[in-house]
Amino acid sequence: MHLPSLFATVTFLLSTRTWGVAGAKTFVVPHTAGKDDAPAVRAALASYRSDSTILFQKGITYNILTPIDFGTLTNVEIAIEGNITLPAEIPVVQAIVADSSFPGHWFKIKGTNVTLRGTPDPKWGWVDAHGQAWWDAMEQTNRPHGWNFQVTDGVLKDMKLWKPIAWNFALSGGKNIRAFNNQIHAKSNSNGFPFNTDGFAAGGTNLLIEDNMIINGDDCITVGNGANGVHFRNNYCEGGHGLSIGSLGKGGQMSSVQNVLIENTVMVDELYGARFKSWTGGAGLARNITWKNITLRNVPFPIYITQNYWDQNLGPKPNSTSNSSTAIDTFNFINFVGDQEDKPYKEGTCISDPCWYYVEGATGKEVIIFDLYPGTATNVKTKNILVRPQTGAAPRVMCDPTTVTSDPGFICQNGLYRPT
Ligand SMILES: *[C@@H]1O[C@H](CO)[C@@H](O)[C@H](O)[C@H]1NC(C)=O
Ligand SMILES: *[C@@H]1O[C@H](CO)[C@@H](O)[C@H](O)[C@H]1NC(C)=O
Ligand SMILES: *[C@@H]1O[C@H](CO)[C@@H](O)[C@H](O)[C@H]1NC(C)=O
Ligand SMILES: *[C@@H]1O[C@H](CO)[C@@H](O)[C@H](O)[C@H]1NC(C)=O
Ligand SMILES: *[C@@H]1O[C@H](CO)[C@@H](O)[C@H](O)[C@H]1NC(C)=O
Ligand SMILES: *[C@@H]1O[C@H](CO)[C@@H](O)[C@H](O)[C@H]1NC(C)=O
Q1: 145 is catalytic
Q2: Could you tell me the residue ranges of all domains in the chain?
Q3: 259 C-alpha to center of ligand 3: Å?
């Protein structure tokens, strides 16, 4: 190849780089003050469903006053470099959610090779759902879910959610997704609690979720039925309900969760640290799940497994006639450090007496609670559990020896924590 043609090739590559993707087109979302900007996006999708960029520009605060179902996208990047605001009035949102045309999420994205991104610019790229008013009113009727990102080969990065009403990122059903550098800011500035503001729902295949900051009022991650290969690492979680698997097996459902690694994560003011929940009467298997190098600050339930889960908000424990639950095989809890809130406390979701998270017979100083179903749990292990009650009390455990078939790494009893 002689020099001019090499030069031409380099110039071509540089210019395509400048314009984004070769052959790609960009839709710059227009904005009209005081109007809903969503209809323009929906209309544009006919031409920008593949090989496109959909850009919410920096410098603009967009009104997304109605949901956007992006449909099935191929080779598309959605870039949110401007701010987005949802309707501020609760009844307006409720009417939309109640309507049969509501797509289930305010933003719904499916497809292959899709990037959903915000911006690293801290001033811009915020999506404000005005959740505070909902939390203050304890309004739980017709709440929208936030983002459904059910794609194959996806990137979800630099997104910033400000006061979401409830559920945030749903990756369930997705495959090969990397979600990183996202922020969820569901922190209340009053006593109104941010109910059900789950961070990531992760019932997908080959998901890598890392370097996110999740301040919320429910599970930081919830790994649901169908998950296979979920890696959650280097995240910061504050205020919520833990690093959760489940709930699985509700209403006798057959569930499968496998190959999950949750590691190098800091948990501050969370109700639970590592958590597993499956319903009495459920079926299926959760296997090969590891929580490793978890740092806890002010967490009442550092490690908590229950195969007897039920919704304590909705009434007493059902008297199940079945002796089953989703089975457990090979769970590891390794290298937990930090401190346990072991004084009487009342978390924001505690609206009943006793609280939904009340554990009969517990002293509040249990660093490990294994509420297992007989004959359904094998190879559950703990190692290096260095979490200590804040009061200086001796750490305790709850564990029924008739439910474990191998050494769980401590003496299985209702009593002091004695590592083996
Ligand atoms: C994925 O989509 C992006 C545009 O967002 C494009 O640059 C890239 O070439 C696509 N990758 C594949 C493998 O098609
Ligand atoms: C964007 O929204 C966030 C959250 O509401 C806000 O803090 C920020 O000031 C907004 N940015 C601009 C430039 O208005
Ligand atoms: C267990 O899961 C990890 C991912 O967390 C994976 O690397 C490993 O191969 C799995 N082991 C088995 C026996 O399936
Ligand atoms: C443990 O996790 C913390 C983050 O919480 C990280 O800084 C540290 O490097 C991790 N340690 C190991 C041995 O991976
Ligand atoms: C379960 O049985 C116990 C004792 O038989 C009873 O007190 C309780 O009310 C029952 N719970 C439900 C949900 O039916
Ligand atoms: C469930 O198991 C317990 C012992 O673990 C046994 O006493 C009870 O009869 C069993 N119930 C059923 C319906 O199999």
Answers
A1: no
A2: 3-416
A3: 5
pLDDT digits 0-9 by tens, 371-389: 998 889 999 999 999 999 9
Nearest atom in ligand 5 to 318's CA: 13
Pocket of ligand 5, beta carbon within 6 A: 316, 318-319
The predicted pLDDT at position 14 comes to 41
DSSP 126-175: EEE--HHHHHHHT--SSPPEEEEEEEEEEEEES-EEES-SS--EE-TT-E
Topology of domain 3-416, CATH: Pectate Lyase C-like (2.160.20)
- What is the per-residue pLDDT for 324? 82
Quick check: CB of 374 below 6 Å from ligand 6? yes
The full length of the chain comes to 420
Is residue 316 predicted with pLDDT exceeding 50? yes
Ligand 1 atom closest to 153 (CA): 1
Distances (CA, A) of 162 to 57, 139, 186, 251: 18, 18, 6, 34
What's the rounded mean pLDDT across residues 97-103?
Answer: 98
